[in-house]
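Team,

Forwarding the record for the chain on the shared tracking sheet. I've put the sequence and predicted structure together so nobody has to dig through attachments.
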Amino acid sequence: MMLFGNFQMCESLQGGYPPDVGLMPVEIALFQPDQAGNVGAAARLAACLDLRLHLIEPCGFPLDDQRMRRAGMDYLDLAALCRHADWPAFLRWRAGSDPPRRLVLLSTQATQRYDRFAFRAHDILLLGSESGGVPEDVRAQADQQVRIPMRPSARSLNVVVAAAMVAGYAATQTGLLDRIERERMT
């Protein structure tokens, strides 16, 4: 099976971590995604905003799926992409990170609005699968939960649209957008 350029397992079978898995201002984690196209679009978002994208498996599609390649286009080679075999592997990776990363779940059930939340550098934005969100045990392990205000008749946003809205807001608060603009001007 062919994997995309920068995808790497963030935890080896021996329990170690790749040496180049460093700190990012903001990170996105997709919990058991169902749609390859959404993962490709999230990888493109990660590449453009210099975010790391974590995929917490199992996914509902093969990772070499052509729809993901088409959605991510040539941006997949620019993105920092990290695979975790399952939720416990992601938690082990997170526990070994220094400084600790806060896990912020995006949820329609949260009471805190994302635009009234104080994001910090190194936060991980966790998004559930398109078909089922996250199970209660995963929800309980989030440090914080935020929601995007929506009309009462609307059920939810597309997972990548939600990720882009909240990641853009977090990137503004953490100074990431200013850094990207400075780099662009040099």
